[in-house]
Amino acid sequence: MLHDEHPMTRPSAARDRPAGDPAQRRRPEGPPAPAPAHPGPRAVPNPIPGLLDLLRRQGRIPAAMANRAASVERLPPPRHETALVAEGLLSEEDIAQAVAQDAGLLFRTINPLELNPEVVTGALPAPFARRHTICALARDADTLTVAVANPFDRGAIADLERYLGVRVKVVVATRSDIEGINGSLYNLRTSLRAAETELTHDHGESANPPAAEQEFVSESEAAGD
């Protein structure tokens, strides 16, 4: 009987795997890393004070939704508005209408096609409008009509009247409407202003920044309120 002088040996599985094969790597010890935390509802600027109490007084949060409302209440107040919408308790329109009713003001849905961009961006400085979630809607000789998300920020309205020297008429709108108008029109104004500055620079001229690009800090903000 013949025997091979060099009997064949079966290569091990380890030898068959290329270097760096995941099967040869040592598994890390310890529990797996936790998944990144969800950021949760967005915190809004200039939040409405006592919003949940306001909604309860008006009966807009049914008893059947008490558990979901309690989870919202555990969040910081600046997150209450977005959390109410995320939880499906109320829509933005529901919240804005409730706030308008409590403040004794009109609620208004903003139609961008009805606005004059020069009024929106020329009446209020952009930083002030964004901080206070306020949007200029119309202006005549002695009155400026603005939409606000938080009508209880009366100090800012009073400061605005002193700053502009006109009477300010207030209506309430959804935060999304106001932020959408401010974002689109002020950004457009900034782009146009940059192009204008470049042209005047080429001609050796200088241009003063318009009201929309000037900072305005109200007396209530300066006092730290």
Overall 3D shape = globular
Q: Count of DSSP E strands?
A: 3
The percent of residues in helical segments reads 40-55%
Radius of gyration: 30 Å
Give the neighbour order of strands across the main sheet: 1-2-3
What proportion strand? 5-15%
- What composes the largest sheet? 3 strands, mixed
Q: Find the structural class using helix and strand composition.
A: mainly alpha
Number of helices: 10
Low-confidence stretches: none
Instruction: Summarize the helix and strand pattern as letters.
Output: HHHHHHHEEHEHH
Q: First CA to last CA: what distance?
A: 103 Å
Write down the overall mean pLDDT.
80
Could you characterize what this model shows?
This protein is mostly helical. 42% of the residues lie in helices and 8% in strands. It contains ten helices and three strands, in the order H-H-H-H-H-H-H-E-E-H-E-H-H. The chain has helices at 13-16, 51-57, 66-73, 80-86, 92-103, 117-123, 126-132, 154-164, 175-202, 219-222; strands spanning 134-139, 143-148, 167-172. A three-stranded mixed beta sheet has the order 1-2-3. Strand 1 and strand 2 form a beta hairpin. The protein starts with 12 loop residues before the first helix and ends with a helix.
